[in-house]
Amino acid sequence: MSWPLRSLIYDLFPHNRRVEPDRPTLEGFFHEPAEASCPRCGASVGPYAASDAGCPWCIQTNLPWDAMVRIGAYHEPLSEWVVAMKFHGSWRWGRWFGEQLANRLKDGRLEEPLGTDTVVCPVAMHWKRQWQRGYNQSRLIAQSLARTSGWVMADLLHRTRATTPQTHIAHSQRERNVTRSFRAEHVDLTGYDVVLVDDVKTTGSTLRAAANQLLSCNPRRIIAAVVAVADPRGADFKAV
């Protein structure tokens, strides 16, 4: 097959693209300390700027999850790796992201450790977008996290309608964009903790919409686990 034809097929059917197994070089990456981020909203904070009650960004905000863990801020090189996975077919990053989040969840960042009664749930992707991309990156991360931790992964959420990608609209419109875009399975999660997994938290609108639906399943706790958290002021996405 000639390269122009192959390139055209990949553009039309990106799920047919073959991706070489890659592993992170980790150049420029360092493991941040737990106190570098707020335990409630995941925002980057300075020394002594956050407590269990939150940080200046979230202390007066009701959140549908009980805690949040992250690998780091949405800065290079982590942001580049997320983009490579999300938009350039480097889906193998999902394994490493999941392993790192599993370590974060077990390194004492949570006030109460997660036990065996834990379910890992990815943020759902609409079937049209998943067909275009070929995979749901949040699900790949969730699979790796669950496998590393010995927990069960379950697709508890479904996307009920296609929405405009959050990065394509203004911050002020993102909450409305994802309103009523998720539906949770009719399951009873009484006594279970749920780890809700996504790749990037920007305004948090998508995670809130997803977590609010999970609350209908009556979980004991919802822990949000994300690869990266963007600047709450929108500084990381000024071009949007």
Kindly summarize this structure in a few lines.
By secondary structure, the protein is of the alpha/beta class. The chain has 7 helices and 7 strands. A 5-stranded parallel sheet has the order 1-7-6-2-3, with helices on both faces. It has a two-stranded antiparallel sheet with strand order 4-5.
**C-alpha geometry:** globular
Average pLDDT confidence is 83
Q: Ends: how far apart?
A: 38 Å
Please tell me how large the radius of gyration is: 18 Å
Question: Describe it for me?
Answer:
There is one protein chain. With 240 residues, the protein is an alpha/beta fold. It has one domain (35-237): Rossmann fold (3-Layer(aba) Sandwich), CATH 3.40.50. The protein has seven helices and seven strands. Strand 6, helix 7 and strand 7 (221-229) form a beta-alpha-beta unit. Helix 3 (93-105) packs across helix 5. The model is unreliable at 1-22 (pLDDT under 50).
Chart the SSEs and their pairings.
Elements: H1 3-12, E1 67-73, H2 78-87, H3 93-105, E2 118-122, H4 127-133, H5 137-149, E3 152-153, E4 157-159, H6 174-178, E5 182-184, E6 193-201, H7 205-214, E7 221-229
Parallel strand pairs: 1-7, 2-3, 2-6, 6-7
Antiparallel strand pairs: 4-5
